Amino acid sequence: MISATLQAEAIDIGAIIAEAQADGAGAVATFSGVVRGDDGVTALELEHYPAMTEAVMRALAEEAAARWSLLAVRVVHRIGRMVPGEAVVLIITVAPHRHEALEACAFLIDLLKSETPFWKREWRGDAGAWVEPRQSDDRALARWREHPVED
Amino acid sequence: MTTILYFAWVREAIGTGEERVAIPEAVATLSDLIDWLSEKSARHEAALADRDRLRFAIDQHFVGIDAAVSNAREIAIFPPVTGG
Q1: In 3D, which of B77, B76, B14 has the Cα closest to residue B42?
Q2: Nearest CB to B78; choose among A46, A115, A119
Q3: Rg over CA atoms, chain A
Q4: Is B69 contained in some domain?
Q5: Can you give the pTM of this predicted structure?
Q6: B82 touching chain A per CB within 8 A
Q7: Is B84's CB within 8 Å of A117's CB?
Q8: ipTM beyond cut 0.90
Q9: How many domains is chain B partitioned into structurally?
Q10: What is the pLDDT of residues A8-67, one digit of tens each?
Q11: By residue range, what is the domain housing residue B61?
C-alpha cells in the first residue's frame, strides 16, 4: 500500500505504526519530524501548494517503493498551525528486512524537505518569520539525486 | 489567460495569492515573466527583485527560470521550499 496524505489535525503516530505492523512484514522504519520548542518558538505554521503537494508526495513515495522494493509506504504531513512537541510529518516504510526500510525512510525525509511545496513559518508570540532552507538539506538531497545508492 | 500563484513571503509581499493575467507574446520565459510582472506595481517589483530567492512551478511541476511560459495554464512563484 502506498499512501501520501495531508491533514490539519494532529497525527496519531502510535495508531499508524500499529497499523503498519499488522501485516507482519519483518521491518517497519519510521521517521517523525517534530516541531522544535527551542529558540522561543511558540507555534509552527505550514503553508503549501494545494494542487501540487499530495501529487508530489505520492510520486516520491512511489519512487521509494520501487527503488527499495517496499511492501508499504505511508507519508502523513501536517498543514496549518501546530505547537512544539507535535509531529509535522510521519514517514513509515515497510520491507522484509531493515536495510531497505531504513534507507527508504531516510530518502523520503530528505526528498520531502527539498522537493515538496511546503513553506514553514515560525511564530514567537505574535511575531512570525519564514524559515530559510538549510544548506545541509541540499547536501542531503545530493546524496540521493547526484550519487544514487546501489539498489 | 494564465493563473499566477504566489506562496509564503512572495504572496505577502505582493499582497495576493492569485491573479489572472494575459501574458504578452514577447514574454517567452519565466525570466521574461518576472520582468513583466515587476512592472505591475511597486509591490511586485519589490517581491520579485531577488531572483536567487525565487523558485517556480508550471502546471504543478517544478521548473527553472529559463522555462517557457507560452502553454502554461498555471504558474507558481515562491521561495525555496521548507517542508518535512
Answers
A1: B14
A2: A119
A3: 16
A4: yes
A5: 0.92
A6: yes
A7: no
A8: yes
A9: 1
A10: 999 999 999 999 999 889 999 999 999 998 889 999 999 999 999 999 999 999 999 999
A11: 2-78
